[in-house]
């Protein structure tokens, strides 16, 4: 079986509880609960596999509504118009998408195109005066990310990254416990995320469209997870790459181990791969306790336990909570749970350093001043 599909099969569509720690009360509300009066009107740009997953998940949203679509393939737009009740006037292609600025019925565009197109597409959407939600990895590097943040600031629009784990109940609970000091002083983090990549012709293996390999695609979860497991920002990075299939992974990284040093002295030991399965875990251990999530970053069901026993958080559709969460942040001026463009930049600075360390044979890259 295609291994990406294998990875994706871990999803769950259940929506359960009504109150999730750290999230607004609507989050996880039952499918029967009504739509809120105010709606964030969303267009999806890039109608591929993940864009479709988001569209399906949005059927259960209470505060966000799918109203538009951007695609280079007319037949996909036709299908989406039928399937998601999208009016013709809210459909665009990549050539005329800038005209979205004249459309008062769209508030936000969710950029779900291949990684290396995010920079261009976010700049286009910001220039059109619409809020932007952009998929991870935010861009190819920190330089592009800074340009995207600056463009959104200049246009006066909000810029968020699709870091869905920040809306996920087990992850929220882990962050709550860490912030409440329930683990005591954090001593170590061990995170990894990877899967065996399938189709050798996919864009994910082409540097020009993917920007990089496993590190960019799923290593970012281990990295972002190290930041929310510690509540600190790394000050140095070391990294090593192994490439067992130099033909398939000619253009992008296959397997990377990386270590992040934090100001407290904690070292997060992290890994990512495109060449084997069963590699997904977040583990944080402190002087008084620990938490382990596995699966920790895929669609779930996320499972976890701590020093207190099994975690019993509800199983949710991540994308439904994320889209309702983004709507609540924008419509009701709520603080965001570390999913801003600035958070994407913090990750990209580390990703740049991971690749720099590899180029320099594992040298320690200091992050201060980067
Ligand atoms: P995909 O290949 O299924 O879809 C990509 C879409 O972009 C396609 O509809 C394709 O037609 C379109 N596209 C536009 N210009 C293109 C070009 N020049 N070349 C190729 N395709 C082009 O990919 P996907 O899995 O949907 O991934 C899209 C983005 O979503 C990526 O940035 C990926 O990292 C992200 N993603 C995030 C998650 C998550 O859990 N947050 C999961 C999967 C993918």
TrEMBL record:
Instruction: Outline the extent of the Gfo/Idh/MocA-like oxidoreductase N-terminal domain.
Output: 40-163
Name the keywords, alphabetized. Answer: Oxidoreductase
Please name the GO terms that the record assigns under molecular function. Answer: nucleotide binding; oxidoreductase activity
Start and end of every GFO/IDH/MocA-like oxidoreductase domain? 172-291
What name does UniProt use for this protein? Gfo/Idh/MocA family oxidoreductase
- Organism (species): Dyadobacter sediminis
């Amino acid at each position: 079986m295609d291994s990406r599909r294998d990875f994706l099969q871990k999803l769950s569509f259940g929506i359960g509880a009504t109150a999730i720690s750290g999230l607004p009360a609507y989050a996880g509300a039952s499918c029967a609960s009504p739509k809120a009066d105010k709606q964030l009107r969303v267009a999806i740009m890039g109608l591929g596999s993940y864009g479709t997953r988001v569209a399906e998940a949005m059927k259960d949203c209470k505060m966000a509504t799918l109203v538009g679509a951007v695609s280079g393939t007319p037949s996909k737009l036709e299908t989406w118009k039928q399937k998601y009740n999208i009016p013709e006037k809210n459909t665009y292609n990549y050539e005329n998408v800038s005209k979205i600025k004249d459309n008062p019925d769209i508030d936000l565009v969710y950029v779900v195109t291949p990684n290396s197109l995010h920079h261009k597409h976010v700049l286009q959407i910001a220039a059109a005066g619409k809020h932007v939600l952009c998929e991870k990895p935010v861009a190819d590097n920190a330089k592009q990310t800074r340009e995207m943040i600056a463009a959104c600031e200049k246009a006066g629009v909000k810029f968020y990254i699709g870091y869905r784990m920040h809306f996920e109940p087990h992850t929220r609970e882990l962050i709550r416990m860490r912030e409440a000091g329930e683990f005591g002083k954090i001593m170590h983090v061990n995170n990894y995320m990877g899967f065996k990549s399938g189709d050798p012709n996919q864009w994910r293996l082409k540097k020009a469209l993917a920007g990089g390999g496993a590190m960019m695609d799923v290593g970012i979860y281990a990295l972002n997870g190290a930041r929310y497991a510690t509540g600190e920002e790394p000050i140095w990075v070391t990294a090593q790459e192994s490439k067992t299939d130099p033909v398939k992974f000619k253009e992008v990284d296959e397997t990377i181990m990386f270590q992040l040093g934090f100001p407290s002295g904690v070292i997060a030991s992290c890994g990512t791969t495109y060449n084997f399965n069963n590699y997904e875990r977040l583990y944080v251990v402190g002087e008084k306790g620990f938490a382990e999530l596995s699966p920790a970053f895929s669609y779930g069901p996320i499972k976890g336990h701590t020093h207190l026993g099994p975690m019993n958080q509800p199983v949710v559709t991540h994308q439904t909570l994320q889209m309702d969460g983004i709507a609540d942040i924008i419509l009701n001026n709520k603080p965001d749970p570390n999913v801003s463009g600035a958070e994407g930049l913090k990750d990209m600075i580390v990703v740049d350093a991971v690749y720099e360390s590899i180029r320099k044979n594992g040298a320690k890259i200091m992050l201060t001043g980067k």
